[in-house]
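> call design_seq(struct)
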């Protein structure tokens, strides 16, 4: 697996949630050491900015710059929205994340909320599961 799509919750875990960032830190280090390509959706940047809106503006801007520097950002399109309407995802936003992963030809999706991707044709793993299966 070389093309890894990271769900919004992974990005939040990595940059904010200390109780989860151990697994995300390990995955990011492994990816750096093994030339993995990490992808996120444009929507992830917007979600992150909204969730973290109480940060001082300069700090939020700095983190967003880091996100855009370290990850390939996949555009979200009208076509993805229309395709998303055809897939029975329980959460519309997760369906758009899935469509972005498909657009980027990703090999898997990393998410802490795997159940949100129940209809995915792409394997969905937690960061810990990815590391456990990859390091065998």
């Amino acid at each position: 697996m070389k093309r890894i799509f990271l769900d919004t919750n992974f990005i939040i875990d990595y940059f904010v949630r200390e109780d989860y960032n151990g697994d995300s830190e390990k995955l990011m280090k492994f990816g750096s050491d093994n030339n993995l390509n990490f992808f996120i959706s444009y929507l992830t940047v917007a979600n992150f900015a909204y969730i973290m809106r109480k940060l001082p503006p300069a700090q939020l801007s700095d983190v967003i710059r880091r996100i855009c520097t370290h990850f390939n950002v996949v555009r979200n399109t009208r076509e993805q929205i229309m395709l998303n309407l055809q897939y029975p995802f329980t959460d519309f936003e997760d369906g758009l994340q899935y469509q972005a992963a498909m657009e980027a030809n990703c090999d898997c999706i990393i998410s802490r909320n795997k159940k949100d991707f129940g209809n995915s044709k792409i394997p969905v793993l937690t960061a810990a599961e990815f590391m456990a299966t990859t390091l065998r």
